[in-house]
Amino acid sequence: MRSSPSDDHAPRALPPELADALGRARPRLGRLGGRSQFFDTIGSTNDAAAALATEGAVVVADRQTAGRGRRGRSWFSPPGSGLYVSVVLMPRSARVDPDRATAVLTLAAGVALVEGVERATGLRADLKWPNDLYAQRRKLGGILAEADMPAVTLGYGINVGPMAYPPELSDRATSLEAELGRPIDRALVFAETLAALAARYDDLLDGRIDAILDAWRSRAPGHRGALVSWTAGGDRTGTTAGIDEYGALLVRTEGRVERIVAGELKWL
């Protein structure tokens, strides 16, 4: 059960720098951003966005105390250093094959985030199936989609500035400023990622799913030819062989191709 956002600090209006950046991007936001909340500190932006239950609602926080990643992992969310955003989407309202649209949503979000980051900063990030952004083989950001149909709350976190990572992350994580060696406008990253997400969400709802998958493949160098392991009735290993039309990862092992849609996958 989700925790109640009322246990966290109260929402307030977007800070001026975020509001101004969002205002400039407004013509490109489409269905997104009609309702927005900002928290200085919150347990999880996904919880607050899910409570709003309105398509296009956006929650952004300066700090999360209980940020989540996939499979129950925590998401390190210190103040002033990252971008922590959640958006409410309704992928089952797609005009063509809503099941496929729902399955591809996380990949569409990944494409949007790398596109938004590149527009805001010039950094070309990579994607790793199913939900991670990478730069120079270090994790830059991640995505978490949580369904309570017909709504899906899509949360994303991007490391923007310097932060003191926990020991288990220190050699695996990076930030926009660390990669580029200069200050980054967090408000601009917020506006551009949201605008890119709006565009890719329109693609999803209008049935342009093949275009999303092609864009994802072009940003994910490891989707073919990478060694991975996973658990399916025992430990298995194989070599990535692309993704299918529903965004499932294909892995070649022991003369056959396995289709992976969820579970614990390790990149070797």
What does this structure look like?
The protein has helices at residues 16-25, 45-52, 98-121, 176-180, 186-205, 209-219, and strands spanning 36-39, 58-61, 82-89, 126-128, 132-135, 138-148, 151-159, 224-231, 235-243, 249-253, 256-260, 265-267. It starts with 15 loop residues before the first helix and ends with a strand. It has a 7-stranded mixed β-sheet with strand order 1-2-3-7-6-5-4, with helices on both faces. A 5-stranded antiparallel β-sheet has the order 11-10-9-8-12, with no helix packed on it. 29% of the residues lie in helices and 27% in strands. With 268 residues, it is an alpha+beta fold. The protein has 2 domains: 5-219, Bira Bifunctional Protein, Domain 2 (BirA Bifunctional Protein, domain 2, 2-Layer Sandwich); 223-267, SH3 type barrels. Helix 1 runs parallel beside helix 5, helix 3 packs antiparallel against helix 5 and helix 3 packs across helix 6. It is globular and about 55 Å long.
Summarize the structure.
This protein is of the alpha+beta class. It is built from six helices and twelve strands. Strand 6 and strand 7 (151-159) form a beta hairpin.
Produce the secondary structure layout.
Layout: H1 16-25, E1 36-39, H2 45-52, E2 58-61, E3 82-89, H3 98-121, E4 126-128, E5 132-135, E6 138-148, E7 151-159, H4 176-180, H5 186-205, H6 209-219, E8 224-231, E9 235-243, E10 249-253, E11 256-260, E12 265-267
